[in-house]
Amino acid sequence: MSGMVEKTGRGLWLTHLGLIVGLAFICFPIYLAFVASTVEQQDIVRPPMPLLPGDKFYENYRDALLSGVNAPVWRMLVNSTVMALGIALGKILISLLSAFAIVYFRFPARKLFFWLIFLTLMLPVEVRIVPTYEVAANFGMLNSYSGLILPLIASATATFLFRQFFMTVPDELAEAARVDGAKPMRFFFDILLPMSRTNIAALFVILFIYGWNQYLWPLLVTTDPSMNTIVMGIKQMFPSGDDLANWPVIMATAILAMIPPVAVVIFMQNLFIKGLIETEK
Amino acid sequence: MEKRVTFKGWTLPLLLVLPQVVVTAVFFFWPAGQAIYQSAFIPDPFGLRTQFVGFGNFIFLLTDPYYLASFRTTAVFSVLVTVVSMATALWLAVMADRIIKGSGTYRTLLIWPYAVAPAVAGVLWLFMFNPNVGLVSWYLDVLGYNWNHVLNGNEAMALVVLASAWGRISYNFLFFLAGLQAIPKSVIEAAAIDGARFWKRFWTIIFPLLSPTTFFLLVVNIVYAFFETFGVIHTITAGGPRQDTTILVYKVYADGFVGQDLGSSAAQSVILLVVVGALTIIQFRYIERRVHY
């Protein structure tokens, strides 16, 4: 029966061919960046550049990591890591606590709080960029990790997700905890938190990538090159005016900027897909 | 939806929501309020005082040819990014769905560009199409086409669309593949028995059954093109040449930070806020309808 709708023989090979062409289109820009990160500047400025990797891999990556252009790239990698982890963990922490409160307690202003969550659901930082910048500047948060992190955890998407999940946790568990005389926080740590493990992990994957890939906000709050994140730092490596860009080092930096989030997607593929589908639907 | 079993007490829950309330109030509601407030003022030339102008900034914007041009640019850009990335992703998903052996491998290979930041995607495409050193622009030159997106507005638009759409294919592919795999095979087999060829089956059965996924992706991709492509624009064209790739989000940044025109930038933020709000309502409406089916 399956032969009716699944391709065999020539059709199957054409399907594979089509997929491979698509893959080539998708992977080519990254492959070319990798090649550029392994050759000399001379090979690039006299086009066409080679299509096979050269032998300057070590030199280019060492130059990028240890000296870079404005700041050493290792420094930018550290900044990006702190920022991405801070956003992912910070958002998960405050969201877990507040979702626990709105699901498992009846307290004044609970309804109001819930509607405020809805309001923040889809407003990206790009839209309120100037006033948010002023707030960060007034708090003296420019060129600081708290300035990079805090404004980006100020949305309640994660709270909403945890609320949805907590609603599916059977009431009997809370009932049993209450009968046993367990304090609310005991219930939270011993029962709710372990049950939320996969949800937390899936959300972590999505938030880590979100945080790592931020561009506009770090561009505004980090004027000091040693506080630049790697994703926004690449553009800063291009010279203004007519000077020639140091392409091998820039492309090495671009590859380095891709490795952490790509590794997260590949090695945590199932969590990533779960997180993606749950945060969006 | 309410929980039947709850814990007692007021202070503990208030303490629990406190961190989120503080962060959201300081970095979300206060700035959003400021944007609305500032949109009603213009600063004097020395920046010492501001003058109340009511809806003046909005009226100015909505009659400003540059702002209206930016609206048009954003519309063209969003439609192109959405169509290019969704069509490519659908094509790949349909093929991956037809393969039993090895479709997992293709999935792994196709999803990882999701993790590439828009700004990094911008740098990669800029490198390929750089008028002086780019490989693609060099080959275009060999073919007799002189590519220069620094001067040519249409080429600049094509390049930012390609870079933005490229970064989005993985995402759309995942959702399309999930949608395709949810279609019962028996329906398709029945059509095959009736003698319907693949493309006929695709347009009459598969595509209509996929429409919830398609509609969802349409909204999400438009939101992406509106707001999350700032990095692509900033790295590749910086809004140029002239204003040809200045999308609305880029204009908020350019007017607010480069041009220091805070009143206008705030008014633009408010307009974007309304746009996002409208898109959110469309999305929620749609999800609700799907739930109640």
TrEMBL record, chain B:
The transmembrane segments are 12-31, 75-96, 108-128, 156-180, 201-227, 266-287
Highest classification ranks of the organism: Bacteria, Pseudomonadati, Pseudomonadota, Alphaproteobacteria, Hyphomicrobiales
Q: Which family does it belong to?
A: Belongs to the binding-protein-dependent transport system permease family.
Q: Which organism is it from?
A: Nitratireductor arenosus
> Signal peptide position in this chain?
none
Q: What is this protein called?
A: sn-glycerol-3-phosphate transport system permease protein UgpA
Q: Does the keyword Membrane apply?
A: yes
Localization terms from the record:
Cell inner membrane; Cell membrane
Q: What does the subunit section of this Swiss-Prot or TrEMBL entry state?
A: The complex is composed of two ATP-binding proteins (UgpC), two transmembrane proteins (UgpA and UgpE) and a solute-binding protein (UgpB).
Q: Which InterPro entries match?
A: MetI-like, MetI-like_sf, UgpAE/MalFG_permease
Query: Is Transcription regulation tagged as a keyword?
Result: no
